[in-house]
Amino acid sequence: MKLDLNSDMGEGFGNSGIENDIALLDYISSTNIACGWHAGDPARMRELVQRALKKNVFIGAHPGLPDLAGFGRREMSITENDAYNFVIYQAGALNAFVKAFGGRLHHVKPHGALYNQAAKDPRLAKGIAHAVKDLGNNIILYALAGSEMVDAAREIGVEVWEEVFADRRYNPDGSLVHRSNANALIEEEDQALNQILSMARDGSVLAIDRSTIRLNADTLCIHGDHAHAVQFAKKIRQALSNL
């Protein structure tokens, strides 16, 4: 099977220190570019859009909550209209860069707390899905597999790719273990690869209580914010090519 590989990018500031993001573009098929609210800025947005277009990598907006200090990972009490406005505003900014350089915005993937809240809250999921629809041009929503965002997108006719994670552990209900928990991340590459192969080949993942969760895997998130991200992405591509 062909599994889209995506990575969140542009989550620093300025043009310095983005070498890791640029190197990853050789091993992924989709990039999710931060739009300035939880991280990122216009300089990185422009640079990564141009680089991704040269590599024929799908370009997506990665909108988050307005929370630079908390990197968009702190939950906020927001309305359906807030979720809609946040996505339209941020994705619209990235889309301007994409259009300026002759490309097309491919998808939207919410970030952090916005993503996790909307995965469980039908109101926020609906706001995000409507925003993606109103952005036009058949933009795709990347959403946590089996989540409320998937249901909301399908209900209003937005194409959705169900997302799974290489290095995150899952709760029995299919949600991601919160990053505040010590066991939220899979640190060992072999364990992460085993999880990836299980999701891609068998459509299942083990939850933290050892129960089996069934899920659809259309796109796999590779976190690029650690020192060995590029090498890990190479291993993932190799492992998936053998399926």
Describe this structure in words.
The chain has one domain (4-241): TIM Barrel. Helix content is 41%, strand content 16%. It contains eight helices and nine strands. The protein has helices spanning 19-24, 42-55, 80-100, 112-120, 122-134, 148-156, 189-202, 229-241, and strands at 4-9, 30-34, 58-62, 107-108, 140-144, 160-165, 204-206, 212-214, 219-221. The strands form two sheets. It has a seven-stranded parallel beta barrel, surrounded by five helices. The chain has a two-stranded antiparallel sheet with strand order 7-8. The relative contact order is 0.15.
What is this structure's SSE topology?
Blueprint: E1 4-9, H1 19-24, E2 30-34, H2 42-55, E3 58-62, H3 80-100, E4 107-108, H4 112-120, H5 122-134, E5 140-144, H6 148-156, E6 160-165, H7 189-202, E7 204-206, E8 212-214, E9 219-221, H8 229-241
Helix pairs in contact: 3-5, 4-5, 5-6, 7-8
Characteristic terms for this protein:
alpha/beta, TIM Barrel, 243 residues, 16% strand, globular
